[in-house]
Amino acid sequence: xxxxxxxxxxxxxxxxxxxxxxxxxEILSAILENDYDISFAHNGKDALELLxxxxxxxxxxxxDLMMPxxxxxxxxxxxxxxxxxxxxxxxxxxxxxxxxVESLRHGATDFIKKPYESPEIIQARVxxxxxxxxxxRTIRDTSADLATGLYTKEYFDHFAKEILKNHPQGDFxxxxxxxxxxTIAEELxxxxxxxxxxxxxxxxxxxxxxxxxxxxxxxxxxxxxxxxEHRESYDEFxxxxxxxxxxxxxxxxxxxxxxxxxxxxxxxxxxxxxxRAFDAFEAIRNDSVAKVNYYDAKLHEAxxxxxxxxxxxxxxxxxxxxxxxxxxxxxxxxxxxxxxxAEALVRWAHPEFGMxxxxxxxxxxxxxxxxxxxxxFVYEKTAEMISRLKKELGVELPISCNVSRVDIFDPNLCDVxxxxxxxxxxxxxxxxxxxxxxxxxxxxxxxxxxxxHLREMGFEIEMxxxxxxxxxxxxxxxxxxxxxxxxxxxxxxxxxxxxxxRILHSIIDLAKFLEVRTVAEGVENKEQLDKLKEFGCDLIxxxxxxxxxxxxxxxxxxxxxxxx
Length: 564
Fold this sequence. Notes:
Layout: E1 13-18, H1 22-32, E2 36-41, H2 44-53, E3 60-64, H3 72-80, E4 90-94, H4 98-105, E5 110-113, H5 119-143, H6 153-166, E6 172-179, H7 182-189, H8 191-211, E7 215-218, E8 223-229, H9 235-249, E9 256-261, H10 270-282, E10 292-294, H11 297-311, H12 313-318, E11 322-331, E12 338-350, E13 354-356, H13 358-368, H14 371-393, E14 399-402, H15 413-424, E15 431-436, H16 437-440, H17 444-456, E16 460-466, H18 473-478, E17 483-486, H19 488-492, H20 498-513, E18 517-521, H21 526-535, E19 539-541, H22 551-562
Parallel strand pairs: 1-2, 1-3, 3-4, 4-5, 9-10, 12-14, 14-15, 15-16, 16-17, 17-18, 18-19
Antiparallel strand pairs: 6-8, 6-9, 7-8, 11-12, 11-19, 12-13
């Protein structure tokens, strides 16, 4: 937003005169041109085109009512529908007294009678209206989100605290409304349509806030916050919003989910209330079915556990409570499967909570910034095992380890990995780096550069969990990777239908076309193994051959199978 200056220091304001009578335009221009920049339009249609096609900010519109093509009344109606024009003040120019009240109802700010009053009166009225407009606009611009018209987060926080303070016995809910496909929807619909959509969402939430004694804001690009009186069901709220957007923009453009913290604890601080609503949303973020979720005792217990885990992370790392297990990978080319590699997997043996699932602590550490330290630990243990196998058994066995979405964009990643290779003395090709498919779609240009550089240095890149995210064929053809790891869901569900089998077969054929190897994860029985071999899959990984093994058990497995 441009900085506002006192009147004596500001640039000349711009006024648009809309009138088809040349003489009227000349009279008003002569009165105002010494103090303002004047533009002209000769009907409402031309005025709308000028206002919406220029970057210039007009401080006032002076509008005749009787014009061809589009008269003044029609112009006022159209202006109200365009968010960027809605607040610009309009002085109606009319000789009909009965039109004055009607014009004010249509959105005019003031009127000047024809024939025109003295120049001094016109100048004074114009100056007053522009100053009032700019004062109101300054307040609005600092308190409102320009895209939606809602309060900014700062003003929301201020007024929300006032509402809660003045109603200590009230029963309120905090709700987050999250647009889950904002970026894709904007690409599909275009920025203009998305701007209108955001404004409509803002209008809907503002109306709901009025009805339920609350307040609302846009807290980020994708998210809105809503504080209102408690309601037993949000079905009507959710479907009303969906129906409005569907009617305006089509069924598949904007999708959303609600996270609700009901019956908020009035003794909690506002940031904690908002965080709990977001926690409710996060619990269903990746759920393809759930649309509305409530913060409850189960989520609260999970949050308490998460806080405990974060507090003891550093000590657990120092006390070697984190363990690296290795799950063998088997080549199924030829007559007999043979051990051909492994994946390093981290486990947490907590002294109080026991074995903690990676599905719990890895997303938690990614969210709060601890994952980089954990990644470094896994890289080190993986390098140790590769070196030990080579030195003690004479076996060069490639081992892959996961690179988190945080670490893959770390500018120091290449230096860290290379230093381990030098420290432990093995070829870079023995250390495979797994990057999940979803990360590839987040910042493709930077990721291509990073993975290409790693491959040039001799490391092999594996695209992990292929099929769990979104990858276009065009993107696949441009990404540098050596191995495609098929998501375990494809293997688990492969025999549920012929369609599933055809998809799995197509993925393996696609990998062959791209000249990369395939690894199928989650193989648990011989039937799956035989079908994958028939399709031409290169390697498999799963409980059919081995669960993830502790270091010594894995070392013994390699020694028993690969050392004669």
